[in-house]
Design goal:
Number of helices: 5
Radius of gyration: 13 Å
Structural class: alpha/beta
Largest sheet: 5 strands, parallel
Number of strands: 5
Helix content: 25-40%
Order of helices and strands: EHEHEHEHEH
Length: about 120
C-alpha cells in the first residue's frame, strides 16, 4: 500500500484523510515538521502533503517546509504537495527553485485539485 504523510501545522482546510484513503494511501499524520522529520528517519512515504507557511523571522530559511525538503534530500524520494497562500507565492517560487515540488495548490484547497495532484503520482 502506498504511504502518505500529512503534515497539518496550521490547518484551516477540510480533513482530506478520507480522500487520501479512498485513493489507496495508508495515512500518517503529524502536526509539525519537527515530528515529521523524526518519522522520516524511519519511513519514506510515497507522498507528503504539507503547508507552506512563510515565516519572515527565520534567518536562514523561509518556512518549515524548506527544512522538510532539506531532510528529504538525505532520507528519501517522496513526492511533495504543498498548500500555500497566494500572497506568499513569490516566496514559494524561490523555494521551488531549490527544491522541486510535485505540486503546489493555493488556498482554498479544492478536493478536485488535490485529487488530480495525487492521481498524477
Amino acid at each position: 500500500m502506498k504511504q502518505l504523510l500529512a503534515i497539518i501545522e496550521m490547518g484551516g482546510y477540510p480533513n482530506f484523510i478520507p480522500l487520501y484513503r479512498s485513493l489507496g494511501f495508508e495515512v500518517h499524520v503529524e502536526n509539525s515538521v519537527r515530528k515529521a522529520r523524526s518519522w522520516l528517519k524511519k519511513t519514506t512515504p510515497d507522498v507528503i502533503v504539507a503547508e507552506y507557511n512563510f515565516q519572515s523571522q527565520f534567518r536562514d530559511r523561509t518556512s518549515n517546509l524548506e527544512t522538510l525538503m532539506a531532510v528529504l534530500e538525505k532520507y528519501g524520494s517522496s513526492k511533495v504537495i504543498a498548500f500555500y497562500d497566494t500572497q506568499t507565492q513569490h516566496k514559494l517560487a524561490l523555494l521551488q527553485e531549490r527544491f522541486p515540488l510535485h505540486d503546489a495548490i493555493p488556498f482554498p484547497v479544492s478536493e478536485e485539485k488535490l485529487t488530480d495532484a495525487l492521481e498524477r503520482i
